[in-house]
């Protein structure tokens, strides 16, 4: 009788898709920017089809999601948190057992820099350095004053505006003939890069990665020759009252996946997957460009990524898990 009941239980479990070893319901924050919604959809598909989870996306944003994870223990996973602005609070939550750091979702972290088009560096490699840029300032023609050179900065009100303003002073770019130009908006900043690229004109300005723009247009980060002084960057370069800014490159912006501690303890295999999977900025730039060009949402972009990049995502998984994901993709 006991054997019969056990057999029935196993059959019922198999039929519903929730055998004892399955992971149950998992909630994933679907943040409101392109890279985050793409990664959330990738996690949902892999957790659902590879690990047998009932994976669900829930709307999210950085601060509300993190607060909810700390206070309510939901959602289970935040796939992409840019942590610079509230690292102390996250460290405290980890120390108190509310959250766990799963892994570095952007292998290189978020990048910020001054950039020039690659076609310029191909012609003159010195333009990959700030000294080369200053020595060739007349190439970067100001749109309204041919006697001045143009550095395209951040739109007013953006956090990066203070940083660019301070670095403009630290690098003594005004002395080299440059004027710092406010592009007015994100669209204005993007448009200035696109126009320069289409005409193969000189361009110097601020941008960040991962982004669709850097996936479409091949740009080179300008090296200040200074390295990174993170302490000064945080204490002065980012401040409005920075009286004597020093030259420093932008420090890496840490971008991690976090889970609740409950999830990390109860789902060790799934947590290991989250700790393993990561993306380079170059790969993600191209994916974001594909999303923009094809007006694709996170789900469509996820299908494109998984179908076109099996060698990448399968390396995050045990062979039997990867096989289940591949089989599910074949049925789409």
From TrEMBL:
Descriptive protein name: ABC transporter substrate-binding protein
Record domain ABC-type glycine betaine transport system substrate-binding: where: 25-306
Keyword annotations from UniProtKB, A to Z: Signal
InterPro entries in UniProt: ABC_Gly_betaine_transp_sub-bd
Gene Ontology terms: cellular component: ATP-binding cassette (ABC) transporter complex
Pfam families the record matches: OpuAC (PF04069)
Keyword Signal: yes
UniProt keyword annotation of Transcription present: no
Organism: Marinobacterium aestuarii
Cleaved signal peptide residues: 1-19
One GO MF term: transmembrane transporter activity
